Amino acid sequence: MKKIIVPEHEAGFRLDAWLVMKHPKVSRTQAQKRIKAGLVLVNGKTSKPGQALEPGDTVEELPKPVAEPAKNALVEPKIVAETADWAVIEKPPGLLVHPAPNQQTDTLVDFLLKQWPKIKKVGDAPERPGIVHRLDREASGLMVIAKTQKAFKSLKSQFQEHTIGKSYLTLVHGKVSRDTDRILTPIGRVSGMGRMAARVQAKPDDKEARSEYDVLERFPHATLVRVKTETGRMHQVRVHMKSIGHPLVGDSLYAAGHKSSPSLGKCPRLFLHAETLAFDDPATGKRQEFQAKLPKDLNDFLHELQKKHAKK
Fold it and tell me: At a CB cut-off of 8 Å and minimum separation 6, what does 12 contact?
């Protein structure tokens, strides 16, 4: 809109109330958001919702800028394989699997609906069409998507019966002493914390969780590990490795406060990659097996760590 000079009879109005008066369809909250976003100038300067207007003030509303595409919208999963019943995709890091309270769009679900519109009615929750299992937002790697309700039920059953094969590549803090081991500590939610915990003394709502790891390579302050999960609890790999004193490198939630060696360097993100995935084809019963290489960001970080270690 054009610049408006505040007349004397409108002096004393709060800026947000003045905007509502000028635009009856705009709520007080909407007006305040526009002001706080710097889209309303008073005498050429940004202001506050409660600023009292004076006679002769010049109020200018700026057009709302065209939003830049969300980063997630620019990164689409790679379709590794598909049939009429299912698809295996490689999820890139940073992509949220399904809508959450703080993000409703630019999720994996948006990609799935665009790619396979009929998947909309597949599953047991409308906000998670085709989703049989999840990967943490910052994690990368393989996921299987159900394209039909029959496939959804079959895959869901396989997950419940723990016949799905899954393994992850991860780099953890410290030197893991054992070459291989199983972690059987139950996992439960930490009330009000938005996180999970592995507890030896299980609480009533804790769930059975089973992981097995193999050490692939040791460094002075970190260890490259392959973790196979027999169950699929939320944050299972992250929580189980933390429970034995080796939180994941780049984990801002579970490694917070963990003293890391400066020589390790800064990992670009959570070092967690779903490397292998195996399941029985819902239509034929034939075992399907897939593998995804470590993506470039984590591979580059690992390569630098290997070079540092080789020099010593």
Answer: 52, 53
Q: Do the bridges between strand 140-146 and strand 272-280 make them parallel or antiparallel, or are there none, so unpaired?
A: parallel
Residue 136 is a catalytic residue: yes
CA distance 300 to 234: 27
Structure tokens at 98: 């399904």
Total number of residues shown for the chain: 312
Question: In the listed set 100, 135, 161, which residue is the last one of a domain according to the structure?
Answer: 161
State the total domains in the chain: 3
* Each residue's pLDDT tens digit, 102-116: 666 788 999 999 999
| Active-site residue, from 85, 110, 136, 206 | 136
- Give per-residue pLDDT as tens, 185-195: 999 988 755 68
> Do residue 205 and residue 307 come from a single domain?
yes
The residue range of the domain holding 8 is 4-61
Residue 246 and residue 302 in one domain: yes
Tell me the CA distances in angstroms from 260 to 221, 234, 257, one per residue in order. 8, 25, 9
Reduce the secondary structure of 54-109 to three states and give it as a string.
CCCCEEEECCCCCCCCCHHHHCCCEEEEECCCEEEEEECCCCCCCCECCECCCCHH
